[in-house]
Write a structure and sequence with these properties.
The chain is an alpha/beta fold and about 180 residues long. It is built from 6 helices and 6 strands. The chain is about 40% helix and about 20% strand. The protein is globular, with a radius of gyration of 16 Å. The structure holds inosine 5'-triphosphate and magnesium ion. Inosine 5'-triphosphate binds next to β3, α4 and α5. Keywords: Hydrolase, Magnesium, Manganese, Metal-binding, Nucleotide metabolism, Nucleotide-binding.
């Protein structure tokens, strides 16, 4: 099976590879594609669209059977600002399969900066005095004391996608 991944961010690419490794053997191509939404999505709907667009674009660009897109966003709720993560898997024949990843509350001042126009990746670099948090442990890694890093979070999300995809392609379960 050939899989196209719509990003070159190593946390996402490694996550997809790891999720597939435990289930089936596959070849991977990672390509940088447009998400078709803002660099910093600010709602679940926008983040889901980004994931679906990435999956579609990667599949078409690599001319393979399956495309996967993963997208991070921030949502504002009555409880405060939550990190959100969404993923999509697309095979061109069926409706995209979409699944959500972990959500954790961000410190209010960081969420406010994001809703005032900054990207969370940049906000996290300033907050931690580190470089490229987004391609390393991620905000989720920082705020869980490294207990759950961004790769691990996306691996779980990728397993949700792959598992549902395999279920849907078993005879009788097609959508
Ligand atoms: O190269 P791509 O695939 O675009 O990877 P990215 O790190 O930019 O990730 P997203 O576009 O999916 O995320 C949208 C924005 O939210 C930021 N972001 C999302 N989750 C994050 C996390 O856990 N840690 C740091 N930044 C995060 C990210 O850096 C972007 O600014
Ligand atoms: Mg991005």
């Amino acid at each position: 099976m050939k899989i196209a991944i719509g990003t070159t961010n190593p946390t996402k690419v490694n996550a997809v590879k790891e999720a597939f490794a435990s289930l089936i053997s596959a070849e991977f191509q990672a390509v940088s594609v447009a998400s078709g939404v803002a660099e910093q999505p600010l709602s679940d709907e926008e983040t889901i669209s980004g994931a679906i667009n990435r999956a579609n674009a990667a599949r078409l660009e690599c001319d393979v059977t399956i495309g996967i897109g993963l997208e991070g966003g921030v949502v504002k709720t009555k409880m405060g600002y939550f990190l959100c993560n969404w993923g999509a898997i697309i095979d061109g024949n069926n409706e995209p399969i979409v699944a959500g990843g972990s959500r954790i509350l961000l410190p209010t001042e960081l969420g406010e900066q994001v809703f005032n126009g900054k990207e969370l990746g940049d906000v996290m670099d300033e907050y931690t005095n580190q470089h490229n948090v987004r391609q390393n442990e991620g905000a989720i890694g920082i705020f869980t004391s490294g207990y759950v890093n961004r790769t691990e979070m996306f691996t779980h999300l990728s397993k949700l996608l792959l598992g549902q995809y395999l279920f849907s392609t078993q005879s009788g379960n097609e959508n």
